[in-house]
Amino acid sequence: MSSDIEIRDERAAGRLEAVAAGEVVGHIEYFVLAARGRALVPVHTIVEPAHEGKGIAGSLARELYAMAAREGIVVAPLCPYVVKWAERHPAEAPAADPGLIQAAKEWLVAHPDRF
Asked: Pick from 38, 76, 42: which is nearest to 60 by CA?
């Protein structure tokens, strides 16, 4: 990844953003699950077409897991990209309890307007 990418957490908006030259070039949309122990739940990973192939999505996924680790909580990924990234990086991305994944799916169904 190029060093001019800054990653910032916009928790109120539920977005982890990758910023280059003042422009958001990619983001992960997520929510914080409060049930059954807290978890960060990524739902979508989006990188602007002009910035694809630069490792931005992977950097976002890595930072999401690092953020969860700093907060002492887990990531329960629903985003297909983050699921695949976690499978490739098991040392950085501990697997979430299946019950937590199910609770995250139920939360998403109960909040259809959120994403």
From this structure: 42
